[in-house]
Design goal:
Part of the Tol-Pal system, which plays a role in outer membrane invagination during cell division and is important for maintaining outer membrane integrity. Belongs to the ExbB/TolQ family. The protein has helices spanning about 5-10, 15-55, 65-70, 80-95, 100-125, 130-155, 165-225. It is mostly helical. The longest helix is centred in the last third of the chain and has 59 residues, at about 165-225.
């Protein structure tokens, strides 16, 4: 009986629709775990890059030097560094066009940083919707397999003259396997989604805070009528 009611044995004797549902859920579960590991390491790298740049930003290095370094390492830079580079690039372009109005300079730099912020946030949130879909849909897919399996089991029992627990149990058990696998796929996806969503919110708050701080720095420099070449060092910000 233990061998007959093992998961592998139940799946091998299940109806074709149930087997297809289980196969789909297994594929989705594997894809979900792959997305979880990719997102975990991606967010870890993003946090590290942001912390490194923020440390350099407040270490005393001039903004021009930071901008030059960000332009050279654009492919390997973190979101915060790319946001800084976009704001500084727009600021310098406006100064090269002899725009002297502080409001125009600051507004142009802020718009560039906000646009870059949105692009970076979209990149950080990549694959998050997939985990949300897996977490919300997988139980229902498994339930569909269970309902179909139970219908198939009772249809077969209708032809029997005498129905006992030993004849009912295998059919119902193989149907319930689909629900179990659906939950197995959904639970890790939901847990990972909630954790990653909190981490992304922290990253977004840090980036928005940096945009405001950098905007304040530019505003002070504009108020003091300083040129880009003589921008104050990060330590004096």
């Amino acid at each position: 009986m233990n061998q007959d009611l093992s998961i592998i044995s139940l799946l091998l004797h299940a109806s074709l629709p149930v087997q297809l549902v289980v196969a789909l859920l297994i594929v989705v579960s594997v894809g979900s775990w792959a997305a979880i590991f990719r997102k975990y390491f991606s967010l870890k790298r993003t946090r590290a890059l942001n912390e490194d740049f923020e440390r350099d930003f407040w270490s005393g290095t001039s903004l021009n030097e930071l901008f030059s370094s960000a332009a050279q390492n654009a492919k390997f830079a973190g979101p915060m560094e790319r946001i800084f580079a976009s704001g500084m690039r727009e600021y310098q372009k406006l100064r090269e066009r002899h725009v002297s109005d502080p409001g125009t300079l600051l507004d142009g730099s802020r718009r560039a940083m906000r646009a870059s912020f949105q692009r970076e946030l979209d990149a950080v949130e990549q694959n998050l919707s997939f985990l949300a879909t897996v977490g919300s849909v997988s139980p229902y897919v498994g339930l569909f397999g269970t309902v179909w399996g139970i219908m198939h089991a009772f249809t077969g029992l209708a032809a029997l003259a005498q129905v006992t627990l030993s004849t009912v149990a295998p059919g119902i058990a193989e149907a319930l396997v689909a629900t179990a696998i659906g939950l197995f796929a959904a639970i890790p996806a939901v847990v990972a989604y909630n954790r990653f969503a909190r981490e992304i919110d922290k990253i977004a708050i840090a980036l928005e805070t940096f945009i405001e701080e950098f905007s304040n720095i530019l505003q002070r420099n504009l108020t003091a009528h300083q040129s880009p070449a003589s921008v104050a060092s990060a330590a004096g910000r």
